[in-house]
């Protein structure tokens, strides 16, 4: 079994920063993709950023220049550093781990609220 545990969400003022972490444990295939999605109330889940085990990165257009994704393969952990947060970034942020199989795992989600 694979488990994903997220941390780092919270309440922040517009323009502020937060860092999310997601640690994966269990039987994990070494060649994989880790990423962050988000889902706001009444909206569909959307990709924020993802990174392969080889370091290739994709960002959604709405976070380019504001968010940075990184990972520590030795710890099976992915990070999302968020800067210049906006109220429209408010959502539940979910960690995702997948590899060819198809195999797809989700974390429980962490709430990010951007409000003054």
Give a summary of the structure in a few sentences.
By secondary structure, this protein is mainly beta. The chain has strands at residues 2-7, 10-12, 18-26, 33-39, 46-52, 57-59, 67-72, 77-82, 91-99, 103-106, 110-114.
Helix and strand topology:
Elements (H helix, E strand, L loop, with lengths): L1 E6 L2 E3 L5 E9 L6 E7 L6 E7 L4 E3 L7 E6 L4 E6 L8 E9 L3 E4 L3 E5 L2
Parallel strand pairs: 2-11
Antiparallel strand pairs: 1-3, 3-8, 4-5, 4-9, 5-6, 7-8, 9-10, 9-11
Plain-language structure description:
It contains no helices and eleven strands. By secondary structure, it is an all-beta fold. Strands 2, 4, 5, 6, 9, 10 and 11 form a seven-stranded mixed β-sheet that branches. A four-stranded antiparallel β-sheet has the order 1-3-8-7, with no helix packed on it. The radius of gyration is 14 Å and the shape is globular. The mean pLDDT is about 95.
Q: What is the structural class?
A: mainly beta
Number of helices: 0
What is the helix/strand order?
Answer: EEEEEEEEEEE
- State the separation between the terminal residues, measured CA to CA: 40 Å
Instruction: Report the strand count.
Output: 11
| Mean pLDDT figure | 95
List the defining traits of the structure above:
116 residues; four-stranded antiparallel beta sheet; single chain; mainly beta
